[in-house]
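Journal club side-thread
Mid-discussion, someone asked how the predicted structure for our own chain would compare to the paper's figures. Pasting it here so we can look after the session.
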Amino acid sequence: MKLLDGVPPITYWFSLKKILRVVNRALLGALGLTINAVDPSEENSEEAYANFHRIKLLGGLLTFENPFLPQPFVFNRFDEDSEFARQFLNGVNPVMIRVVDDVGKQLTPALIDFFEKDKTENLEALAKAKRLLYVSYDDLKFPESTIKNPHSAYPEVFHPGDPRAKTELRYFSHAVVIFMLSRDRKEMSVLAIELDGKPSPKVYTADTVDPETWLFAKETVAAADSQFHEVGIP
């Protein structure tokens, strides 16, 4: 739907198709909740969450996915690069991602230098084909020692004279991540991540660090996105 001036017409809100879809989802959900396999003893575990979407019969001898409840798609794929990339278009904050039109102006020197040496991908060629995208949290790059530091839990701009502005600090990451769109333009992959915004920052890729470090880098980007989107920068 294109952007509208003013409030959308009431038919956009309560069309017959939408009402039937909501009723259908509610009925299926209610049915699914009556037969799910949640174990109260595992209330806070990952297994309990998985069981919520399963049906168990004959004391657990037969177990299968509950067809009446939506499956935990993200839960099952959270550590995959394609799912990490998909969230930047389909997640809670889809306004950060940009197409790279000018590699030299939009990407950091560290990322450009890395791929000039690594030569696994040609950034200029990808940009020309409109297959190179990036996200950069520039507003999270601040000095860590000033009283007006937005990293403070009590920033001076909102709490004038509060001594906690110097002691209650929250450290954010000036993260930058670049993506490559597949040739069929149906899926994105993660090319590289830069985290600290220092003069010579480390560049992380799936092929140059171990799986745990690569997952850490992606989690740090996700944290930066949440901080920027939810916390806000004064």
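Post-session note: The beta strands are 54-57, 62-65, 98-99, 132-136, 176-181, 188-194, 203-204.
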